[in-house]
Design the sequence.
């Protein structure tokens, strides 16, 4: 059996043993995972991962036979992913919140680095180039080779004059040497190109382009295949807002996969396009919402769908045979294929569910062994994990709403205090997995309801369309209908309910106590939207009044213009005088997805109206609670506030 990693990870395992009988502290839930991004080397002999202790992040590389091969403290801002380029190099993607002068607005900028395992050196990718370009990742990150030398293939934005807003640059595909950081152009693109698909040797297969037709208020999407020194356009569609994506290449290398719209099934479905002649093939798989498992080489290994758990439908023939036995080893849990060797002899699995805080395993497909690597939350034992299951109820207008219900382990499901915890997005969904936020609240004695309200994903196009114009309307009552359902079942006490959420969920929390009456005893908004008009105005400022972003916001909010009075009627900041419960505002001052100004405006409106509120600023935090320090600060403040206004006992 493979032992847990030494050093930082093992220290977490020791702490777990010492605190288990006392119950997991909030810190156990609120800190970043102790290990994440576990990746197996191409030859299957070593593992690389990101380890976290406190706020220190380290990259650890360890041989499966025992010795540590390399480790390094992460000194750059926020590490987002890790992958092997070859046996000696790792590709690290990190981000920081910044503006690029004369080029872009403030946003989360992603950059790639090479970590040489033998020397311990980091190299920015790119460090230099013959062109005037940005060293900001602008597309898929694909390790490959140039002859025998390992390189990185990645799209980079080349500036010409002025800035991105004036459409003066172009997106080109580059190969970057992993030790020198030198970038050399492989393929020139244009301003409308946003994605490339290439083989691991740099041979370009296809590109995708998207052009906003501001005058016609629609978008044209184009797929082109590389033909010698030119391009062959093989598929074009013009849509109001929703357009295809270039997913990847089939395992046999004969086709690329895009999604096209099936009018009969009323959904976008994966579709094969022949690389030989450009002909559009049949839809792949049954008519249901699907995602994809795509390798670093762009190969589409499997399509995925969600029932109670995420499941894979493999198209890679070897994995199609291998996977069922390893999936079935973890019945009743969610199993993610996190990493694999090119020959599929070694697999890294991430397993979580209703009785597990989440852990990594290595599977040997030759010997059929599955051995643990380590836990993402080592201070939380199975005994600390609260009960999780899916429930279904009817909305007021008859829609079926499914929701994840988490209940405290040590208390009977009767007359429990409730936290409604709507997800962000709103185009997202909650599943039966270990959710650190929900589990933390349940560990304090609360039932937690996470509804997949209208507008959530994996419910079909009609369910999505039912959300248009319903921010603060039926999307809101979908949540309170869940309260009624649980109250009638005797599970919760409807007089002891608070609402907590982040991003869109933060908006729903604010709307729950301003646009609804008498439902909640308190509300916690984390990076929540408070002003819908500002969301439309900001999208118009960045791209134009008829840009895709502005049109998307108008469709969401059900308005034709930024002057529609519905925007203020559905904006909590303009309805603060109607607040009927205390509000806690929590927001990172580096947030570029929902700007910090939303919570500032809400705080000013509540203060002017004489309504009770508290405001916590998360210093140097973005929209995603990216550091352990701010995540724990958010969770600690949330629990204290909820316990004050809605005691669990």
Sequence:
């Amino acid at each position: 059996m493979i032992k847990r990693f030494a050093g930082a990870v093992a220290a977490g395992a020791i702490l777990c043993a010492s605190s288990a009988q006392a119950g997991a502290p909030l810190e156990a839930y609120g800190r970043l995972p102790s290990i994440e991004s576990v990746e197996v080397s191409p030859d299957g002999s070593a593992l690389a991962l990101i380890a976290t202790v406190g706020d220190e992040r380290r990259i650890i590389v360890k041989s499966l036979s025992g010795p540590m091969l390399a480790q390094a403290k992460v000194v750059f801002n926020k590490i987002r992913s890790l992958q092997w380029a070859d046996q000696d190099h790792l590709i690290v993607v990190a981000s920081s919140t910044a503006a690029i002068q004369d080029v872009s607005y403030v946003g989360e900028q992603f950059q790639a680095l090479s970590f040489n395992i033998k020397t311990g050196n980091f190299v920015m990718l790119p460090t230099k180039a013959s062109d005037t370009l940005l060293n900001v990742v602008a597309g898929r990150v694909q390790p490959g080779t140039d002859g025998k030398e390992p390189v990185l293939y990645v799209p980079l934005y080349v500036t010409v004059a002025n800035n991105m807003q004036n459409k003066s640059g172009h997106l080109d595909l580059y190969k970057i040497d992993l030790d020198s950081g030198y970038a050399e152009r492989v393929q020139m693109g244009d301003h409308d190109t946003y994605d490339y698909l290439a083989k691991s040797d740099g041979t370009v297969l296809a590109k995708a382009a998207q052009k906003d037709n501001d005058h016609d208020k629609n978008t044209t999407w184009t797929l082109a295949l590389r033909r010698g020194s030119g391009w062959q356009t093989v598929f074009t569609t013009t849509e109001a807002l929703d357009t295809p994506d270039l997913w990847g290449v089939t395992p046999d290398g004969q086709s690329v996969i895009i999604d096209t719209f099936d009018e009969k099934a009323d959904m976008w479905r994966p579709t094969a396009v022949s690389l030989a002649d450009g002909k559009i093939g049949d839809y792949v798989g049954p008519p249901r919402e699907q995602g994809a498992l795509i390798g670093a080489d762009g190969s589409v290994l499997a399509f995925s769908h969600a029932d109670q758990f995420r499941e894979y439908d493999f198209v890679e023939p070897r994995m199609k045979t291998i996977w069922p036995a390893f999936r079935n080893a973890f019945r009743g849990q969610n199993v993610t294929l996190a990493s694999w060797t090119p020959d599929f002899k070694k697999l890294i699995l991430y397993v979580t569910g209703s009785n597990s805080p989440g852990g990594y395993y290595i599977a040997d497909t030759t010997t059929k062994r599955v051995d643990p690597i380590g836990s993402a939350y080592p201070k939380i034992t199975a005994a600390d994990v609260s009960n999780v299951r899916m429930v279904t109820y009817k909305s007021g207008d008859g829609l079926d709403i499914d929701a994840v219900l988490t209940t405290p382990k040590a208390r009977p499901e009767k007359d429990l205090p409730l936290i409604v915890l709507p997800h962000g997005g709103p185009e997202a969904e909650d599943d039966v997995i270990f959710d650190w936020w929900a589990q933390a609240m349940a560990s304090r004695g609360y039932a937690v309801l996470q509804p997949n309200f209208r507008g959530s994903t994996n419910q079909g196009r009609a369910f999505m369309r039912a959300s248009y114009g319903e921010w603060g309307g039926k999307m809101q009552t979908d949540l309170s209908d869940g309260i009624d359902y649980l109250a009638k079942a005797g599970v919760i006490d409807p007089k002891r309910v608070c609402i907590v959420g982040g991003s869109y969920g933060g908006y729903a929390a604010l709307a729950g106590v301003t646009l609804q009456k008498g439902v909640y005893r308190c509300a916690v908004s984390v990076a929540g939207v408070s002003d819908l008009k500002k969301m439309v105005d900001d999208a118009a400022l960045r791209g134009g009044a008829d840009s895709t972003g502005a049109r998307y916001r108008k469709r969401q909010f059900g308005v034709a213009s930024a002057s529609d009075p519905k925007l203020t009627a559905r904006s909590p900041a303009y309805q603060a005088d109607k607040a009927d419960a205390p509000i806690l505002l929590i927001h990172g001052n580096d947030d570029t997805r929902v700007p910090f100004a939303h919570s500032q405006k809400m705080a000013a409106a509540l203060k002017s109206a004489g309504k009770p509120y508290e405001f916590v600023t998360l210093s140097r935090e973005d929209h995603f609670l990216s550091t352990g320090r701010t995540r724990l600060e958010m969770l600690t403040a949330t629990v204290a506030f909820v316990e004050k206004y809605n005691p669990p006992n």
